[in-house]
Write a structure and sequence with these properties.
By secondary structure, the protein is mainly α. 61% of the residues lie in helices and 1% in strands. Strands 1-2 form a two-stranded parallel sheet. It is globular.
């Protein structure tokens, strides 16, 4: 595991406000959704540690699903919340805090993928996480078309490959490059299966040619990246205290730029805001010619970014009483720190800006 010194442990950073022009929304069945999800999660025996189970029980999985996907029927939305519960438990209990090696993660994720690919092919010795995901994969068939099941399966492959890569770095005394970290974390954050569920929960379908459009692929990756960077911004203090872990965008940038964490924080916020501005502009351009299914998918991407922040702003999981207080203005801000439409000098994501048509309007207006 990549560890930090005692000096770094006390070098916590203040909370920063977030720029997100997408309006908030919330599913009205949030309380029922959370109660059902927590009861189901406890029945799966995902973790034997009582303290960890209590922490998971107050993560508000229903609130996360209700804020990121405030549409659709309760049943598929509950399925999404259950997915969140299993992936959070897997992240905490297996990936981040157990010291799992890349070899062990490769074995575990291969079993998970077999359960997702062929849920009827039960195997002896499956972990509770694999067993739970097999059950969810079978339940998915009640709500998803064969094409949507295929997309979810491929999304899980993206996610599990990221977990193995992440595990290899957690056993490394060094940190990855900025380019590698961004690619790794957009996969390991678990957003690929989440965005694959947007059309399932919403009860609509997106054509394959639309999903393969380079602009739509860029918007999907941008969504994964915004959520992963936002998570790094608000969770770094918690990760330092609980796991002595500095596998975080801020600390990777410190290494890349040879700067201190406070200077890196300023740069990360500017990077994040520039990507948010790009998402807003590119989404507007795609929506101009989108059919109903694609329109709902693109709006669902924006809602996920906003809903994730709404959920994180009140989730006890990320509360660190000793952390420095937020700057004046609270959790939100009205304007981006950087509204440039020039590509960030990061090779793995620079292609996103190539998808923009020539500018025809002001930057920063709401997408939703």
């Amino acid at each position: 595991m990549t560890c930090v010194s005692e000096q770094r442990l006390v070098q916590q950073l203040p909370a920063v406000p977030f720029y997100c022009p997408v309006p908030p929304a919330r599913h009205p069945s949030v309380e029922v959704l959370n109660d059902q999800t927590v009861r189901w999660m406890l029945q799966q025996h995902l973790d034997s540690d009582e303290h960890q189970l209590k922490r998971l029980a107050v993560c508000d999985f229903g609130g996360l699903a209700a804020s990121t996907m405030p549409y659709g029927a309760l049943e598929p939305l509950t399925l999404m919340a259950k997915f969140h519960a299993v992936l959070f438990s897997l992240d905490d209990g297996v990936c981040d805090e157990s010291g799992a090696t890349a070899d062990l993660m490769a074995q575990e994720t291969s079993r998970i993928m077999r359960a997702v690919e062929a849920p009827a092919a039960r195997a002896l010795g499956d972990s509770p996480h694999t067993t739970a995901l097999r059950r969810l994969r079978l339940e998915l068939e009640q709500y998803a078309s064969p094409r949507q099941v295929r997309r979810l399966t491929e999304a899980m492959r993206v996610y599990t490959s990221g977990l193995v890569w992440e595990a290899s770095w957690r056993r490394n005394p060094e940190l990855p490059s900025l380019d590698d970290y961004i690619t790794l974390w957009m996969r390991a954050i678990g957003m690929a299966p989440s965005t694959a569920m947007i059309e399932v929960v919403g009860g609509f379908s997106v054509a394959d040619e639309d999903m393969q459009d380079s602009r739509v692929r860029a918007l999907t990756e941008i969504t994964w990246t915004l959520v992963s960077w936002d998570n790094d911004l608000y969770s770094r203090n918690k990760e330092l205290l609980r796991a002595d872990d500095n596998l975080n965008l801020i600390d990777v940038l410190c290494q890349e730029q040879h700067c201190d964490p406070r200077r890196a924080l300023v740069q990360v916020v500017a990077m994040r805001d520039r990507v948010m501005v790009l998402f807003d502009r590119l989404a507007r351009q795609v929506l101009e010619e989108a059919d109903d299914g694609l329109r709902r998918y693109v709006q669902g991407l924006g809602q996920f970014v906003r809903g994730h922040l709404d959920w994180a702003s009140i989730c006890p999981r990320y509360s660190v009483p000793s952390s420095p207080r937020a700057a004046p203005g609270g959790w939100w801000k009205e304007q981006p720190a950087d509204n440039s439409l020039e590509p960030l000098p990061i090779p793995t994501i620079a292609w996103w800006w190539d998808q923009l048509a020539p500018a025809r309007g002001p930057v920063g207006a709401p997408t939703g």
